[in-house]
Amino acid sequence: MATKTKSVWYCTACGNESSKWMGQCPACKEWNTMVEAPSEPRYVKASGIGAAVSGAERKPRHLKEIDSATEARRPLGMEEFNRILGGGIVPGSLVLIAGEPGIGKSTLSLQIPLLCPGLRTLYVTGEESARQVKMRADRLGGDDAGCFIFPETHMESVIAQAQQMLPDLMIVDSVQTMYTQTVDSAAGSVSQIKEVAALLLRFAKESGVPVILIGHITKDGYIAGPKILEHIVDVVLQFEGENKGQYRILRSIKNRFGSTSELSVFEMTGSGLREVSNPSELLVPMHGEGLSGTAICALLDGARPLLLEVQALVSSAVYGTAQRTATGFDVRRLNMLLAVLEKRAGFHLSAKDVFLNMAGGMKVTDPACDLAVVVSVLSSNFDYPIPSDICFAGEVGLSGEIRPVPQVERRISEAGRLGFKQIYISSFSGEQAVGTGDIRVIKVEDVPALVRKLFAKR
Ligand code: TYD
Ligand code: MG
Asked: Is the N or C terminus of the chain more exposed, i.e. has fewer CB atoms within 10 Å?
């Protein structure tokens, strides 16, 4: 029977597959994200993801027969990177580092071999010439004895080279520039990206060589690529941060060998990325007492407690409509908090411009930040500085109530460890929310109570 080449459509936002074009993706509900890719069942069978497991293992074995030894991990030269992987890289694993262009993915992936003497690394670059990589390596410093640079975009050559060399680690920068001859479409298309990743996965599983794969995403997390790859790879690390800010956050969003609630902070310096092992110390104020409009929030980002400075500036609106701007915080949430202050606590902020900023270019989604946002806004509005040894952790509800936040004890102990003297939390927090050591826990039930306690001396 004659076979007809059929097409499939993929959603570039979530990777959902469909047999026909649709305006809206039924899985993620995004519009205009479906793209066409020829499906080649013959090929998928030959070397698709299913083929990643070698023939010998294609037989069911009793659970008891399988040896339970924990995966041997190889620690790399960067402490924070090891921690986020769960203690080192697992042999035969495929790790995706995804991030916007210019965030520092190439820098990070080149620093890994440079900081790990004795690690034989094959660094495949499809974006930069060998010379450009060399220039970057010189800038980064470190030991380049075990580092081999291979400028190549043809996947079959890359795999052949890797099979011959069998390095300790392979890095591929980036998935969008690689292509395989078995798929017709251009490099960077959905089907190319899927196939390139499947080839790398197969190589990693068969040879035991860990592979770090770099993938670009755009500002809104779009473009075919990393979203589709998430299903294929073992580990997804997302590199994020404000492009202009000096701090970068590496977040684990999928990890088949460890926890996904890990996060690491890096600082971009003139000579590469520097690991920040205690982020709180950097993100809290860099000025003395007496500045109004700032409040410290005890956040939880992933599993890690983090103290962060929230800055607000409230001024009379110059034009008719007041402006509300938030950097690193959801502006709708800011508007909601301002409405709560207006309605429940009687502060007239509707004719005021409000600017809000999270220190260090951090993006905050933890609702525990609400309380610090409210306090910083009021502090700026009254021009009343908050003592720098006080911090906050609470969610603010629509009726002005202060709601408890998860893992409050960890936030309290991190604040105590960093020398804070008081922490304001919800009075609905459990019994276990008590201060340890020098830190005193102050429980407040709603915004008016908070104002009475904090701004009483005003
Ligand atoms: P890069 O790793 O090329 O980003 P990506 O691979 O994610 O696109 O790095 C991007 C930025 O980092 C670039 O704008 C320059 C800056 N940078 C430094 O500030 N210091 C350094 O030592 C290096 C190598 C880069
Ligand atoms: Mg790059």
From this structure: N
For residue range 356-376, what is the model confidence (pLDDT) as tens digits? Answer: 999 877 788 899 999 999 999
Answer whether 211's CB lies under 8 Å from 204's CB: yes
Question: 27-66: b or e for each residue (b if 16 or more CB lie within 10 Å)?
Answer: eeebeebbbebebbeeebeebbeebbeeeeeeeeeeeeee
Q: Is the pLDDT of residue 198 over 90?
A: yes
The whole-number average pLDDT for the span 303-310 is 82
CB of residue 270 inside a 6 A radius of ligand 1: yes
Q: Residue 268 is which amino acid?
A: M
The residues, any chain, with a CB within 8 Å of residue 424's CB and separated by 6 or more, are 371, 375, 390, 391, 392, 393, 394, 442, 443, 444, 450, 453, 454
How sure is the predictor about 39, in pLDDT bands with cuts at 50, 70 and 90?
low
CA of 211 to the centre of ligand 1 (A): 21
- Whole-model pTM? 0.71
Ligand 2 centroid, distance to 225 Cα (angstroms): 15
The response to whether residue 104 sits with its C-beta less than 6 Å from ligand 1 reads yes
Radius of gyration of the chain (CA): 26
pLDDT higher than threshold 50 for residue 59: yes
Give the span between the Cα atoms of 20 and 30, in whole angstroms. 16
- Rounded Cα gap, residues 446 and 345, in angstroms: 9
With a 6 Å cutoff on the Cβ, whether 177 touches ligand 1 is: no
Cα 107 to ligand 1 centre (Å):
6
Is 385 a pocket residue for ligand 1 (Cβ < 6 Å)?
Answer: no
Q: Residue 218, SS3?
A: coil
- The residue whose CA is least distant from atom 14 of ligand 1 is 102
Query: Looking at this protein, which amino acid is placed at residue 329?
Result: F
pLDDT at position 217: 82
Answer yes or no: are the C-beta atoms of 347 and 340 closer than 8 Å: no
Confidence of residue 42 (pLDDT cuts 50, 70, 90): very low
Between strands 294-301 and 324-327, the pairing is: unpaired
In this prediction, residue 294 carries a pLDDT of 92
Nearest-angstrom CA–CA distance, 67 and 175: 34
- For the CA of 136, the closest atom of ligand 1 is 24
Encoded tokens for 181 = 């001859």
**Rounded to whole angstroms, how far apart are CA atoms 434 and 350?**
37
Produce one character per residue of 142-160: b if its CB has 16 or more CB atoms within 10 Å, e if not: bebebbbbbebbebeebbe
The closest ligand to the CA of 137 turns out to be: 1
